[in-house]
Inverse folding.
């Protein structure tokens, strides 16, 4: 999940039976944006859209 303005993603843990999501980890990324997607064939590759510059930013997460 993202906060839309910060250059970070928030990884949440979802309980198996429902209930509240729990914050697990904050991952710094290279773009602030309202849209992101992981590459299905490469789990280290992340795509993000920078709304201000109208660019798609491709990052490698390690």
């Amino acid at each position: 999940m993202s906060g839309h303005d910060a250059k970070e993603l928030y990884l949440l843990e979802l309980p198996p039976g429902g209930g509240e999501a729990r914050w697990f980890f904050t991952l710094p990324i290279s773009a602030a944006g309202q849209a992101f997607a992981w590459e299905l064939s490469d789990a280290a590759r992340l795509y993000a859209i920078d709304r201000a510059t109208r660019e798609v930013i491709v990052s490698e997460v390690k």
Observations:
- Residues 8-60 form one domain.
- The mean pLDDT is 85.
- The beta strands are 8-13, 22-28, 35-39, 42-50, 55-60.
